[in-house]
């Protein structure tokens, strides 16, 4: 079991899985969750500033979370997510993009309860050219080892 104190900071880890954006999966997700015309219709997308069909932000976030689960790790003493900070959409995800995720634990601080700590991890979704598409910092509450002893 990995506790708050055990987490190694500043060592990026990448997903073993990837996700290829296709017109079909972009449209399917957007049709149900974000039917903005440039996400569901090629002609509307062609008239947009992007100029082609592109994925909804919530689709890209869902891909990020899904791919993060393909990163090998031991069981952790995580309790709950506390929230995301610094969410940025750096560039659109477009048809043909092969997406992967990188997670780097960047900070750790005590929580208000002595038996808990907060771990901050940077999530970066990037394409086949290594360009970051989406990034955010995820805050997770974890148990501290001293409290488990």
Automatic annotation (TrEMBL):
Highest taxon of the source?
A: Bacteria
Domain MaoC-like, chain residue ranges per copy: 11-111
Record-linked InterPro entries: HotDog_dom_sf, MaoC-like_dom, MCH/BMMD
**What is an example of a Pfam family matching this protein?**
MaoC_dehydratas
- This chain's protein is named Dehydratase
């Amino acid at each position: 079991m990995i506790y708050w104190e055990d987490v190694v900071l500043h060592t990026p880890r990448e997903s073993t899985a990837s996700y290829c954006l296709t017109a079909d999966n972009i449209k399917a997700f957007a049709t149900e969750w974000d039917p903005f015309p440039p996400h569901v219709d090629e002609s509307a997308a062609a008239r947009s500033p992007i100029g082609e069909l592109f994925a909804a932000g919530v689709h890209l976030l869902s891909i990020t979370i899904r791919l993060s689960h393909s990163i090998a790790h031991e069981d952790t003493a995580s309790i709950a997510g506390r929230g995301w900070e610094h969410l940025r959409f750096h560039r659109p995800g477009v048809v043909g993009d092969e997406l992967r995720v990188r997670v780097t634990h960047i900070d750790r601080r005590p929580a208000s309860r002595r038996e808990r700590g907060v771990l901050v991890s940077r999530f970066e979704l990037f394409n086949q050219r290594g360009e970051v598409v989406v990034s955010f910092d995820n805050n997770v509450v974890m148990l501290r080892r001293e409290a488990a002893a």
